Structures are given as structure tokens and as C-alpha cells.
Amino acid sequence: MADKKWMPRWFYQLASPRWCYQITGKLLPWFAVAALVLLVGGSVWALAFAPADYQQGNSFRIIYLHVPSAILAQSAYMLMAVAGAIGLIWKMKVADMVLKSAAPIGASMAVLALATGAIWGKPTWGSWWVWDARLTSMLILFFLYLGVMALNSAIENESTAAQASAVLALVGLVNIPIIKYSVEWWNTLHQPATFKLTEKPAMPVEMWLPLLVMVIGFYCFFAVSLMQRLRNEIIWRERRTGWVRELLDKQ
Amino acid sequence: MNMHTNPRQQASEGMAGLFMATCRREFLLSFRRKSDLVNPLIFFLMVATLFPLGVSPESGFLAQLAPGVVWVAALLATLLSMDALFRSDYEDGSLEQLLLSPQPLFVVALAKVIAHWMMTGLALTLMAPLLGVMLFLPAEGMPGLMLSLLLGTPTLSLIGAIGAALTVGLKKGGVLISLLVLPLYIPVLIFGSSAVQATVTGLPLGGYLALLGALLALALALAPLAISAALRISISS
Predict the structure, then answer these.
(1) How many domains in chain B?
(2) Domain assignment present for B2
(3) Three-state SS for A166?
(4) Is A18 among the domain residues?
(5) Residue B217 belongs to some domain of the structure
(6) Shortest CA distance from A180: residue in chain B
(7) Which residue in B61, B134, B140, B188 is a FRET match for A75, CA 20 to 30 A apart?
């Protein structure tokens, strides 16, 4: 077993809460600076310099918040489920903590996507909410997050809670494509995805470049808040170990 | 027992025997407590009664509403009955014995869910035409209603059992299980009520039934794994 190294060494090192705490401490400032620069720069570019839409005027500019938060809400669920799978397979405590920390961030991203969508929908479609496929599947994604969070807080034993939420997150991951397509066949009105990996975007470059900057900025912001939550969680769970005591005594 | 039987054959006999024994035990236990059998059906009937009272007793309007209402009522009735699936076994300790036994938990979980479905989902399916008549569902819609429920309710039971297994160790599992399971029920609800609507309007039914069957096949293959993993996690604490 020992000579079969098919996983890189850092993967196993991440399993140590102490090492993970230190490495996130080193990475955190870089991501924080990147998030700040990209988000501020991207917002100024998007709000002041990007051209207005020929039909929707300036009201389209909310997509610079809406699209990144919707993308993030989906990515965060992926991350949560992958962390859950890692936690179940390799019994890594850190993966359990990542799962627990990612759920509230993903849920708030889903809320942000729904809220910005509603604000944009009022002038454009004439109503705050329509029962459209993409809106509904985002709402269901939000419900899935709530389920994971509710289960995690209902079980008192930390490792049991983490394992149970990991199973639920994985069941949800299997269900997400099914939910997406079932809802899509049920009813659709929303425009198709703004960014696709396989096609060129339909928008002009001046419009989608700031959007790309915003998306990357949101990812950096997500990394920052995930790392902060993770560090809190590590400190809390390892509060009885020597190195955390030393750390707290120093401060 | 014959000492010279093929070990593989013995194992498969053991598997089928285990399945049948678990089913028999489930049936026996629930026929000894008949109220648990009838309660979901009464709930199903009552929810359907609320809609004409709450919305409008007008027949044309109710007929439009009927596919969705019957499906939502069946979904909620299944959901409410799910919490009891592992609860009594957990409380009297027999669930622990099942987990400790050398037999695969996969088979036990599947048998328990199928026995549970026969007493709730199948009963709900048989009762659905009554609700259809109460809600003025056109007679053409009845086969679609029964077929879609027949294919859809086992999926509901299988998915609900995952939630039941995850929450069995908790004192108050009731509301939590709905939170966990309801979002996962949505595809079944969509395809099920669309199937009924299709038969009412005279559209072909095959596609919807194929989709419901695909969901059932997926759930049959994957849900018992998730149920047994969840049971092991719940018991370990």
C-alpha cells in the first residue's frame, strides 16, 4: 500500500487540520487582495464603462451580480458534495469542515441570485417572480442547501453530522441534473446561460469581459470566505489540542 | 440443509431468503398495528377534501386542478408515513441487530422499503380513482393517474427512506425529513402530474411513463446503497 502513491502528497497533508490552518493562513491575504481588486475593478468597469444594452438600457447591468452569484451557487454545491465524498471515503476531518463551511456561503449566493433576478425581472418581465425553469431550479438548489444545513445542525455529534450531510449532499448531487431537466421540460422562459464553455458568448466583448472579471472576483471572494469559515471551524473543533492552545495563548 | 450445495447458489438463496424474511416480518408487524396502515390513506383523503373547500367547488376548475392535487396529496401521504419506517426498529434495538448481521444491508433496506411501499404507495394508487372522482377528474385520466402513481410512488418511498435513515437517530425527525426529502421529490411530481394531464388531453402517455420508469430504475439501483450508508452513520453515534 505504502509504495502505491497515486494521490499527491499535499492531498494527505491537507488532512491535518494544523497544516490546513497554516496553509490557508498563507493563502488568505493573496485571495483577499485579488478578490478586492477584481470586485472593485470589475464593478466600476461594469457599471460605468460597459455599454448599455440596446433593449434593456441600464437595467441589464444587474447581471454583473446575478450571473456570478448564480454560477457560484452551483459551484459551491459541487465543492460541498466533492468535499463530502472525500470525507466519507478518506475520513478526513478537514473535508467535513469544508462541507459544513461551504453550505451557508452557497445558500447565500443562491439567495443573492434569486434576489437580483427578481429585481431585474420586475422592469423586464413585469413581475418579481415567474415560474420559469431556471428560477425554479435555483430555488430548489437553495432548498437543497437548507436541507444540508438543517441536517448538519440537527445532529449533535460532529462527525455523525458531517457524514450524514455528506450522504445528503451526494444524493442531492445525483438529483441536480434530474431536477434541472425535469424543470426545464416543465416550463421555460429564461434566456439560456450567458456563459457556455463550448460556445462564444452572444454579447459583445466590452460587455462580457467585465462579467468575466466579476465571476473570477466572486470565486476569489468565495475562497476567502470559505477559508475564513474553515479556519474558525478548525480552531473550534481542535480547541482541545496543544497547538490551538499555544496559538490562542500567543494572542 | 444439503451440505453439498454450490456455495454461490447458497448465497443467492440466502439473499432471496433474507429478502423474503424481511418482507414477511414487515408485513406481520404492520398488520398487528393496523392504524399505521390506515393513517396515510385517511390523510390522503382529507387533503383532497380540503381543496374544494379551500379553493372552489366548481367542477370545471377542480378538474383542471385534480392531477396536481392528487399527486401532491399522494406525495405528502408517502412522506408522512416515511418517518415510521426505521423508527420502531431503531427504538427496540432490532435495527442494530440487522446492521450487525453478516447479511448485506442493501437487501434488508430494499426489502423494508418495498414492503413499506406495498402498504402505502400501492394502497394510495388503488385509492386514487376515488379522489379523482371527488375532484371531477375526467374518466379518460384515470388510467394515467393510476399508472403514473404505480410507477412514481416506489421512487418516492425509496428517496424518502434515505431521509428516514438519515434522521432515525434524532428525537424529532418529522419536520426535518420533509426538509431533506421534498426537494428531491420534485422531478417525480412533475413527470407524474404531467402524465395525468397528458391522458386527460388525449396526448400519448408513453414518454412520461418511460421517464418515471427511468427514475424508478435509478432509485432502485442507488437508493438502497444510500439508505444503508445512512443507517450505518445514524447508528454509529
Answers:
(1) 1
(2) no
(3) helix
(4) no
(5) yes
(6) B187
(7) B188
- The number of CA neighbours under 13 Å toward the Cβ of B8 is 0
Cβ of A140 within 8 Å of Cβ of B186? The answer is yes
Mean pLDDT value of segment A220-233? 94
Return the higher-pLDDT residue of A240 and A186: A240
For residue B210, give every residue at least 6 positions away whose Cβ sits within 8 Å of its Cβ, in sequence order, or none.
Answer: none
Question: How many domains, chain A?
Answer: 1
Q: Are A175 and B176 in contact (CB < 8 Å)?
A: no
Q: Is B42 on the interface with A (CB under 8 A)?
A: no
| Chain B contact for A1 (CB, 8 A cutoff) | no
Has residue B188 been placed in a domain?
Answer: yes
Q: What are the angstrom distances between the C-alpha of B143 and each of A25, B49, B125, B195?
A: 63, 22, 11, 10
Q: What percent of chain A has pLDDT over 70?
A: 90
Chain A stretch 164-203, residues whose beta carbon is closer than 8 A to a beta carbon of chain B? 164, 167-168, 170-172, 174-175, 178-179, 182-183, 185-186
- Which residue range forms the structural domain that includes residue B218? 7-236
Domain-located, residue B159: yes
The pLDDT score that the predictor gives to residue A122 is 84
B208 inside 8 A of chain A by CB: no
The 10 Å CB-count burial string (b at 16+, else e) for A126-145 is eeeeeebbbbbbbbbbbbbb
Average pLDDT over residues B28-42: 86
ipTM exceeding cut-off 0.90 for this assembly: no
Contact A150 B167 (CB under 8 A): no
Residue B67 with chain A: CB contacts under 8 Å? none
pLDDT tens per residue, range B221-233: 999 999 999 999 9
Q: Do B170 and A170 touch (CB under 8 A)?
A: no
Q: Report CB contact under 8 Å: B184, A164.
A: no
Composition of chain B by helix, strand, coil, percent to 5: 85, 0, 15
Q: Is the pLDDT at A188 greater than 90, yes or no?
A: no
Residue A95's H or E segment, with its range, is: helix A93-125
Q: Provide the residue range defining the domain that includes A231.
A: 63-195+208-250
Beta bridge partners of A53: A57
Residue A15's pLDDT band (cuts 50, 70, 90):
confident
A237 assigned to some structural domain = yes
